[in-house]
Amino acid sequence: MSERGSEPTINMVIAAHQALKAQKPLVQCLTNNVTVNLVANALLAAGATPAMIDNPEEAGRFAGQADAVLINLGTPQSDQVKAMHKAAGGAHQAGTPWVLDPIGAGSMKWRHGLALELLEHSPTVVRGNASEIMGLAGQEGAGRGVDSGMSPQTAINAARELLKHACAVSASGPVDTLVGPLLDRHHNGPALVEVSGGSEWQPRVSGTGCALGAIVAAYCAVVRDPLSAAAAAHVHVAVAAELAEEHIQGPGSFAVAWLDALDQVDETLLRQRGRLAVRWLDA
User: Rounded to whole angstroms, how far apart are CA atoms 77 and 276?
Assistant: First the structure.
């Protein structure tokens, strides 16, 4: 069960990170077969527990037992698609938080239709690049397959549109853009969270975006407010990427260093390097 939270802060991120490490949530992943190994290892490094249950015989029931679910449309095949529908339905029925990563939505007709069908099961968070968020919302983007030609800031209106179906929406890029409802003494409505940092090497390693979606799901399992959970995940991943960049020679060494850094992130690093800004959007 999600609830509307207060403004995300670095202190909130630190508390969420501590909860993740303490609880080690079980995250069911129905994900891209190109990146499945990196996704599983990224979850382990971040502090969660992966379960790559993506067959139709088990996916629906397991979604009710897991702490969170990731559904990633990277390489959907017929049996996995059946499992995705069952997992999304099972998660929604059980109240399990789940994340939709709509890879290729908007630019590829068949998987765009699949993403729209999955939206009917009310994902907790939709996480993608700007073109995917815009395409899923029915707006014209500049995507080419799984690539994005748009900045995350261009997807703000599309993200707000998708809040009809999800509790929070995030578009990743040089500055990650997250949209969702917040509540405080002075406001009650949609807010924008921008998470800066990260590394230019991230898009040069296949699977960093897929892993981010899984880590968002993990944080949704330990933080009741989906926008705050997504913000904590984005900050964790960005800080790890910055740390990894200091010790690499290319994309191969970045992938290894990033996994190490996901594990090394702690309160001190989050305070030193974590950067997020919040502003309210006009109703």
Answer: 37
Average pLDDT over residues 202-226: 96
List strands edge to edge, sheet with 168-172: 49-51, 26-30, 68-72, 98-101, 125-129, 168-172, 176-183, 188-195, 276-280
Beta strand pairing call for 188-195 and 176-183: antiparallel
Distances (CA, A) of 30 to 12, 49, 85, 177: 29, 14, 11, 24
DSSP state of 191: E
pLDDT digits (tens, 9 = 90+) for 127-180: 999 999 999 999 865 454 444 456 778 899 999 999 999 999 999 989 999 999
Q: What is the dihedral of CA 213, 6, 135, 201, to 10 degrees?
A: -40
Residue 218 contacts residue 24 (beta carbons within 8 Å): no
